[in-house]
Amino acid sequence: MHVLVYSSRRDEKTFLCQAFEGSGHSLQFEEGHLTERSARLASGFDAVCVFVNDRVNAEVIEVLAQTGVRAIALRCAGYNNVDLDAARARGIAVVRVPAYSPHAIAEHAVALIMSLNRNIHKAYNRVRDGNFALDGLLGFDLYDKTVGVIGTGTIGAVFCRIMRGFGCRVLAYDLSPNDDCLELGVEYAALAEVIRAADVLSLHCPLTPATYHLIDAAALARMKAGAMLVNTSRGGLVDTAAVILALKSGQLGGLAIDVYEEEGDLFFEDLSDRVIADDNLMRLTTFPNVIVTGHQAFLTREALTGIAACTCRNLTQLEQDGRCDNQL
Ligand code: NAD
Asked: Which of 133, 292, 293, 295: CA 20 to 30 A from 229?
């Protein structure tokens, strides 16, 4: 297939080119996102390859269908940005990478927790400035704390295993409990109980209409005072405005996020010479107890290798069999 790769980053191209070598598919790279406007660039391509912040709504799908695109290959697991009904209606197959190094994301969540808890983000700058004072760097032992996990699928289960290794009590909520987690000693409870009991609450469920703003003002008020919230899943799970109020009042003790509900036009870009107009994101970056990373949890060599290989397999299977195991 002739494939147009949207939102392609330099680091990722090498992995994609390696995986597609000798596959018979040809790749062309476009750095910009897929949008209503850029969809026209796909004219003459069989497939487009997209990432988390590409817009794959009904309007875009209509343009893609008109240009002759037959397949949309997601280089990610989540597909909340794709209008699947519109794709089905236009006969465009949508395939995804359901799992690629869940360790990458789970380990990033742990890195965020450890950095925030032990104030590594502050210590790094202090020491470089010759300031070796310890005031304001107090953390807590994770050992014996209760870690709440919402969503114990592929990534959540790896996260639970690591937290059990720290000696934490892990209390989880999922629509269907995971046997591997139960074996690890993870306890399942109702959503409200997990939110109430957690010292650290980490989100690992997908963004769906049911989970949009799962953590809103009411949920934040039910959390233990001073608890930490971690989101490496999707920004829309958290009501950012409510989180800012909870941080200002001290009800929320810390926030570590790799995803942000309005990240679409910001993340993955170097905007360091611009004025960023998003007041909520800018307010978040002023709190000493907030760490924001720009959707980088997946960014390991192992994950990029897996994503590229699976994307290539998906397109080959689609071309040869007319269907794919990873089709949505
Ligand atoms: P998965 O499908 O294996 O697991 C998701 C789990 O969430 C499932 O067990 C499911 O039952 C559960 N779930 C669904 N709806 C729920 C609800 N309403 N309440 C509670 N649990 C619910 O997915 P995964 O591979 O573990 O990925 C989880 C999410 O992580 C993805 O949806 C994606 O948004 C995010 N992700 C982020 C990055 C990143 O770089 N930050 C990378 C990959 C994935």
From this structure: 133
Q: Do residues 279 and 239 share a domain? A: yes
Phi/psi for 71 (5° steps) reads: -145, 145
Atom number, ligand 1, closest to the C-alpha of residue 99: 25
Structure tokens, 48: 């487009």
CA distance 233 to 27: 29
Q: Is residue 211 part of a domain?
A: yes
Q: Is the CB of 311 within 6 Å of ligand 1?
A: no
CATH number at residue 148: 3.40.50.720
Helix orientation angle between 102-117 and 154-165, rounded to the nearest 10 degrees: 50
Instruction: Please work out whether the CB of residue 190 comes within 6 Å of at least one atom of ligand 1.
Output: no
Same domain for 134 and 191, yes or no, is: yes
Report how far ligand 1's centroid is from the alpha carbon of 202 (Å): 11
Q: Are 297 and 9 in contact (CB under 8 A)?
A: no
Write the residue with the smallest CA distance to atom 32 of ligand 1: 206
Q: pLDDT band at residue 189, thresholds of 50, 70 and 90?
A: very high
Catalytic residue numbers, as ranges: 234, 263, 295
Cα 317 to the center of its chain, rounded Å: 26
Q: For 173-184, what is each residue's pLDDT tens digit?
A: 999 999 999 999
Please work out whether the CB of residue 154 comes within 6 Å of at least one atom of ligand 1: yes
Q: How many domains does the chain have?
A: 2
Could you report the per-residue pLDDT of 207-226, keeping only the tens digit for each?
999 999 999 999 999 999 99
Indicate whether 109 and 211 sit together in one domain: yes
DSSP string, 78-101: --TTB-HHHHHHTT-EEE----S-
Pair 250, 309 in one domain:
no
Cβ–Cβ < 8 Å for 236, 184: no
Amino acid identity at 171: L
